[in-house]
Amino acid sequence: MKKVRFYMALVVLVSINMTMAAQFTEAERITHGVLSGLNSVLESQERKQKAELYAKEKAQFKSAFDDAMDAARELEEDGKYADALAKYEEAAVLNWKYGYSDQRSLTRKITSLYVPAGRTEEGPSILNNSKVTLPDYSGYRFMRENPICKPSKQAERIQILRVCCSDTETRIEMEYETASMNANPYIDPDAYIKGKKSGKLRIVSAQNIGVKPSTTRVEQPYQKLRFALIFPPLSLEDSEFEFKESKEWHFKNIPCK
Asked: Does residue 165 sit in the same domain as residue 239?
């Protein structure tokens, strides 16, 4: 009889505990729902405040953008290219943040003034093709411009301009269009090329772009940085190879013969 009473009491206690646990779980669920709702309201208010502040700033700086553009055009017409370039760059910073005009067109204008303004050895002038293009390619057994090869869709702004092969090196000349202000592109030191006969060959050096941890600063968005990557020589038996620097920068079927 005592055993029966004991088990009955145990059943009652278990039932009470389960009921209390369920109540706590329901309370926690309700509390979580309330907190989530409050967070959503706060986030919505924060987004609204940011949007209002952005709109206010955009209207506030519109006259500064227009003034910089007008001054830049006048200075350019007067042949004062260095001053004009500085004004165009001033406008570009505002335009990138607030979107008053087409940034690509503004960037092309800035790029076109580097040489007339004498900015060939500093800042964004790293884009100069003369720092990458060789005056003589006769020392290579194979040279092809614009090889038929495409990277992944995520890397539409990167392209191969030229591939050169010799008995001492494989040279890949590339162009990368940045998409943000003050970009710092670099090359991963594990970048490699790979041929069926050559196997995997890691990068030896780079020209006009930093190899991580070094970076290369490009101030304006939509600038096109040209650079060259140097790898060991490919086997004479290879007719094509692949280049991989990252998941996005991955080219296949690059001709080399």
From this structure: yes
d(CA 107, CA 126): 14
Predicted confidence (pLDDT) per residue in 79-99, tens digit? 999 999 999 999 999 999 999
Q: What range defines the domain where residue 150 resides?
A: 129-255
CA distance 182 to 34: 42
- Residues 5-35: tens digit of each pLDDT: 555 555 455 555 555 555 556 666 666 666 6
How do 170-177 and 192-195 pair as beta strands?
unpaired
Given a cut of 60, whether residue 207 has pLDDT beyond it is: yes
Nearest-angstrom CA–CA distance, 141 and 238: 13
Query: Among all chains, which residue has been given the structure tokens 């041929």?
Result: 195
Distance, in Å, from the CA atom of 46 to the CA atom of 83, rounded to the nearest integer, reads: 40
Number of other CB atoms surrounding residue 52 within 10 Å: 10
User: How many domains are contained in the chain?
Assistant: 2
**Is 118 within the bounds of a domain?**
no
| 224: its two tokens | 């096109």
Q: What amino acid is encoded at 232 in this protein?
A: P
Residue 233 near residue 170 (C-beta atoms within 8 A): yes
CA distance 84 to 76: 5
d(CA 37, CA 212): 44
Predicted structure pTM score:
0.71
Same domain, 184 and 98: no
pLDDT at 111 over 90: no
